[in-house]
User: Fold this.
Amino acid sequence: MNELIMIKYGELTTKKDNRKFFVKTLTDNIEKMLADENIKIIKNNVRMYIYCEKAGKIIPKLTKVFGIHSIVVAYKVNNNIEDVLKKSLEIMDKNKETFKVVTNRADKTFKTSSMEYSSNLGALILKNSNYKVDVHHPDITLHVEIRTDGTYVYTEEIKGAGGYPVGVQGKGLLMLSGGIDSPVAGYLALKRGVNIECLYFESPPHTSIEAKNKVLTLARILNEYSGKIKVHVVPFTKIQEEIYKNCAPNYMITIMRRMMYRIAEKYAKKINAHAIFNGESIGQVASQTLDSMVCVNNVTNMPVIRPVACFDKLEIIALAEKIGTYETSILPYEDCCTIFVPKHPVIKPTLENCLLNETKLDYEKLIDEAIDNIEVISNFEKPKYEDLL
Ligand code: ATP
Ligand code: MG
Assistant:
């Protein structure tokens, strides 16, 4: 293991009391993501060092781990300035002309100040090469970090995923459909450190196996940012058919969503999740007007977090493309929301009418039955589901 990656932590450095817990969670997450690689991790409260065989192979995986501010391929030498100079000249891009040195001196027992060290090393580089100094717009910024165990030099810094390590905020239950919005909502929740598990409502035979596989594919893509995703599949057919039989057509969607929320809340408590997440966006469709949200939200006391509530569709699409879910989301398979769709769903539902429509439903029993029959999927091997799409 002769290559070294240095990790700079994201926002967690500001959370002093929790720092240890954050760093431990981040380390666990990285170990999980790199389970197939031969690596050795050394960490402290400000930096993590990953020793590996081929940095280029593991960096793409690291760019999906939340809680990382930046990733650096670093070179460690001893604290002797001659050795630092030699390594610096080796790693500086030969095709570039100008440089500056930025020194960070974590080892405060080191006698020279950071400024002095930068100028001493800069002078040595000038003497031993054709580079010129440009402190404002250098082609190369040579970073030098002097620590008690040695000096680390690097020139390239790769942007990390940012956010908090997945898991530091506990668990959330994401209502994951096959659409564009909910995977993006899941990504944003993961980014804040929420350990997401997914709930998918399926209505066979009205919805197909392809529709389910599409959701599982989306979950697999989200799992690249998490490593801990599970999908809980709720059998929703009977509930939808009962709604179809017993409720006014224009209220069918509102009642269906109230049933989804009831199930989500009850099941979230069962799996120890503290909030429900979904991909609702204000005004996107009739069931997502503020009036509709009031009626649907009324069935639960649990926080319902809608990460894309205030995003335009085009903004959501841009994020979906960035995280790699868009291509799958636009595959044309039906969702349980798209069957039994009335011609004119109510845009301004009232709570009173919701309750009236639900009088004929024995919904507690229906909910318990659905929850008892939930299927849990936690293994997202690529060929298994995607070959079927
Ligand atoms: P689209 O991109 O087409 O809007 P969507 O996934 O947002 O897709 P909506 O009908 O707008 O679908 O539903 C709003 C939200 O309700 C979804 O983002 C999702 O969180 C949740 N939802 C809808 N259908 C399902 C389902 N079958 N299983 C789980 N959650 C669902
Ligand atoms: Mg939507």
Notes: The pocket of magnesium ion (ligand 2) is lined by residues 179, 181, 279, 281, 284 (CB under 6 Å). The CA atoms of residues 250 and 343 lie 8 Å apart. Residues 171-388 form a domain with the Rossmann fold fold (CATH 3.40.50.620). The chain has a mean pLDDT of 92.
